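If your schedule permits, I should be very grateful for your opinion on a structural question. Thank you for your consideration; the sequence and its tokens are set out here:

===
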Amino acid sequence: MQKVDSFFRHFDSKSQNTFLIDADRNITLTYAEADSIINNIALGIKQHNKKLAFLFCDNSYTSLLSYLAALRSGNAVLLLNSKLNEGIKQNLINLYKPEIIFSQAPLALQCYSHKGSDGVNYYTCDNESHSPVYHNLAVLLSTSGTTGSPKLVRLSYRNVVSNAESIADYLNIRPAERAVTSLPMSYSYGLSVINSHIVAGASLMLTETSFIFRDFWNLFNQHKCTSFAGVPYSYSLLKKSRFDEISLPSLRTLTQAGGHLDADLTLFFHDYASSAGINFYVMYGQTEATARISYLPPEYLPQKIGSVGIPIPGGKIDIVNNGTPVQKAGETGELVYSGPNVMLGYADSREGLSHGDELNGILYTGDLGCKDEDGFCFITGRLEKFIKMFGLKIYTDEVEKMLRDKLNVEAACCGSDDMLCVLAASLNSYSPDDLRKEISGCFNINANTIHVKQANEIPVTESGKIDYKAISSLF
């Protein structure tokens, strides 16, 4: 097993620095106290052969300690949201056959024995004759949020540690920093906040309270948190809730990833950060790159607005067109990322966990983009987010942007090769026919092939990303 000593270097029997504060349970642990608990759990699940652990997690100290114990024991761990329904949980258990399952909620499992240590509940399989697990496999994450899709991203120890160290580097995370868990631990962005603070020897304030409630910000102030992480939907809600009127004296850093943040919101939070003397980072990443791929240094706003910035330390981004990296500024192609944080590959069954490194550190992101004269990257669309109607490629990102910019209509689009489906959160005094005519005129497609529905809101996943699968099911 590849060592993860650098990940645990701040866990020491003598370290009295605060590691975590579970605000919902009024529990505080130092690095030394956490180290002892992690060791006890790890010893209980450590086996001669590498095993697979499932962790049904929330933003609690038991979930965090379980995750770290799984890593320390040398077993691979899949992080799944504890709120998944029982049918999805059982389907994934049947498919991947984990030898260990962490769950604070009781589970009705056949052929598993219940165990526990230091308040952490887990189950071990009585039959361990399953397919082997690749020796460097550390973490598994779902690519589809809360849907329970069997397609998993396979991450090595090197992936996890290198990405955490890169993030800590460019965000200048130091031991005095304290992050709040504003995103699910089972989401790659949320997990990256945890990992990057651990490698820096910083601390975490854990809570399940939503940031839309004032209690969240009261806890933020009470425990002197220094950073907040959010996706575009998070920042949209923050603006609506008059976030800028809340006094947050300990706040030093805002980070945004998980999708494109529109120009108005970017400027709003840039202005807020500038006036408050804090840093606002726009970032770009994918679960397939463990979490982060690039970031925009705060000093380049607002002049580089719309850019996802430059590669993270240790990474490289090429714009590739027809298999060849382009050299000309402004020329569009696929973003191809290279770095030590690129996943080993995917898995869709237990057998897939035995595979080694299938990508060799190179990730074809599926995102279209370009670089400007200074080497800053801009995302312009996605390869897979288009439909081909009457021989024309219609990029659904561009349809959404047109409706937002031209008509001030927030919408999400999906479809097939014979129908463009548009779900509008509000029609803004336009009728569905008006939207069809505008789209037809802008993109030169027959209005009869455009289906428009109105909804009170755009469905989003738990992590705040637009839920295109849910939208597709409405048509």
In short: The chain is about 25% helix and 30% strand. The chain has a mean pLDDT of 92. The first strand starts at residue 18 and ends at 22. Residues 31-45 form the longest helix (15 residues).
